[in-house]
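Practice problem 4.
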């Protein structure tokens, strides 16, 4: 029987240790890891892992205004809605906006804003940043319902004498308004637009011949909601083009209305035979 060498066990242990070290290095590349403890084994040696993207919270904190976006104005050209309507009503209180609020921020509103900014020695941008809005609110009161939504954008003026008796749709080319009148009293009013010089709206006394809530023109193939015909193919009706473009356009002879809500209410009250007066 061969006796075991006393140094055999230590040599075997050393060989095993060398083998483990060699095996640990095969196929492994250094891994750059951000953040203590990520991918580390309990013994402190890093294990292969997917690189972690640097956190935005690491390093020096961002300075004030870093990645900040410009402040949006309270109102500006192209805006529309309740805030613009309030802006216009407040400018009207100070005499800068010479018509009734429309809720649309166009060139007239921008001019009025610049005039107010000039008086207050603010930058005349034509837009309404927070400083301009605060200055305007400080010098005006909260608009009433009638200030926010008056019947028309322009004064109605004196009604034609033919409109003072009975139930009449009284249309003025001078003030560009339609007034629904009952026994001389204006029940409702709205802005209107007429035909161009090539297709003028006829003047005179007429009567509603028929009504069509969802009418479509058979000639121009355009929608004519709440149409009330009074002279051949000419009718009072809602116009989406008038609502969008205002007086930059014209009709083909009809009386365009841009306030659909008011016209819908009028449509429900008018009957065939109701008198229509178109005058200057």
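Answer key:
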């Amino acid at each position: 029987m061969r006796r075991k060498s006393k140094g055999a066990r230590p040599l075997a242990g050393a060989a095993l240790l060398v083998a483990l070290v060699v095996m640990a290095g095969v196929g492994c590349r250094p891994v750059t890891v951000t953040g203590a403890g990520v991918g580390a084994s309990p013994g402190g040696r890093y294990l292969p892992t997917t690189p972690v993207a640097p956190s935005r919270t690491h390093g020096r904190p961002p300075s004030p205004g870093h990645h900040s976006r410009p402040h949006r104005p309270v109102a500006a050209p192209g805006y529309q809605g309740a805030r613009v309507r309030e802006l216009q009503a407040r400018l009207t209180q100070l005499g800068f906006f010479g018509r009734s609020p429309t809720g649309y921020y166009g060139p007239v509103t921008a001019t009025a804003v610049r005039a107010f900014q000039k008086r207050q020695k603010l930058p005349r941008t034509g837009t309404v940043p927070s400083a301009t809005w605060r200055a305007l609110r400080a010098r005006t009161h909260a608009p009433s319902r009638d200030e926010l939504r008056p019947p028309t954008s322009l004064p109605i003026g004196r009604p034609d004498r033919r409109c003072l008796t009975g139930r009449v749709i009284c249309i003025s080319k001078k003030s560009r308004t339609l007034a629904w009148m009952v026994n001389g009293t204006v029940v409702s009013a709205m802005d209107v637009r007429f035909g161009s010089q090539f297709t003028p709206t006829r003047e005179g006394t007429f009567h509603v011949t028929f009504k069509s809530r969802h009418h479509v023109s058979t000639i121009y193939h355009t929608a004519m909601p709440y149409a009330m015909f009074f002279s051949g193919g000419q009718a009072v009706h809602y116009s989406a083009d008038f609502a969008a473009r205002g007086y930059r356009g014209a009709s083909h002879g009809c009386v365009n209305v841009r306030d659909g809500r008011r016209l819908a209410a009028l449509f429900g009250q008018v009957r065939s035979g109701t008198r229509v007066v178109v005058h200057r």
